[in-house]
């Protein structure tokens, strides 16, 4: 019998969830579980006892046998290296592959997250690029790749003509590694999505990246969240947004950007007609920063459809500025204000703007100290609005 708690521990599920304390698990296709018992200690808690068994009839064959897959990984990697296999996409996240395993893989989509891959493994992956194999999407998040490994990957990235998505989140790239990434991006003409979240990148690294993106004409999605970028780095990003015509989705969440940095960003947004999604959550932009953004949304900017301002230290005064923009803005469809302090007064400002705004469809107001009075005002506004989802 397999206890779920043991399954949870074995799968390290916390590393795969946005909420690190959440208990969730993805079972392999073909897994058969029998309900052994169920009970409800109280009206809000339901529990079941499951046991994994062999199914009486097998409709779907599991992709792996019941033996420990770690014993089969060497054979799996060896087989995937042969061209006659038709597998072109596989998820090997958390499989504890070694650096030499990487040398043998030939696929078009490859997920190698959480495998302890070091710079040596990055060297082998760079060889895959140079061999002009058909790899289009590569996920290397949560490994141990440093600036040295990035030197190998960036060298291969320069002339690569197949890779369109590269995920390097939660490695150890830092500012020195950003120099190599920037060098690779200057000549690359295929990559459209780049994830550099949680890599200890500071203002210097942001400058190196934006310098490269001045000439890069293909990248459309950039995630540099959860780094150490402050207002000086934001200045470089704002300068880029004034001239870059390709980036449509930008994630700057979890950095150290204050209202001064947002002022520079908002000034760039007045003339930027490409950006559609902007994520700024968990930056201390406060009410003054929201005012700068609101001015951009109310005046020239007509392209941003999704704006994330979660945990940004916004009060009712900041919401007052933002709602003034909602009276005239006709592009914003999704707005998240989760984890601020807007209260009932802020909810009232939002409700008043929703009587006029006919574009917004999704609004997240969770964890905002809104009581029944604020909820009632919003509910009244929804009768004449197109918003179909509000989260409290």
Write up what this structure looks like.
It contains 13 helices and 14 strands. It has 392 residues and is of the alpha/beta class. The protein folds into two domains: 4-52, no CATH class; 74-306, Ribonuclease Inhibitor (Leucine-rich repeat, LRR (right-handed beta-alpha superhelix), Alpha-Beta Horseshoe), CATH 3.80.10.10.
Our estimate of the beta-strand percent is: 5-15%
How widely separated are the two ends? 40 Å
The outline comes out as globular
Biggest sheet, strands in spatial order?
3-4-5-6-7-8-9-10-11-12-13-14
Tell me the CATH superfamily of the largest domain. Answer: Ribonuclease Inhibitor
Task: Let me know the largest β-sheet.
Answer: 12 strands, parallel
CATH topological fold name of the largest domain: Leucine-rich repeat, LRR (right-handed beta-alpha superhelix)
Tally of individual domains? 2
User: SSE order in H/E notation?
Assistant: HEEHEHEHEHEHEHEHEHEHEHEHEHE
Using the CA coordinates, give the radius of gyration. 24 Å
The CATH class of the largest domain is Alpha Beta
Named CATH architecture of the largest domain: Alpha-Beta Horseshoe
Low-confidence stretches: 1-22, 66-78, 80-87
Total E-strand runs: 14
By secondary-structure content and strand pairing, the structural class works out as alpha/beta
Separate helix tally: 13
Indicate the mean pLDDT: 83
Looking at this protein, list some descriptive labels.
single chain, 392 residues, alpha/beta, Leucine-rich repeat, LRR (right-handed beta-alpha superhelix), 2 domains, twelve-stranded parallel β-sheet, two-stranded antiparallel ribbon, 13 helices, disordered N terminus
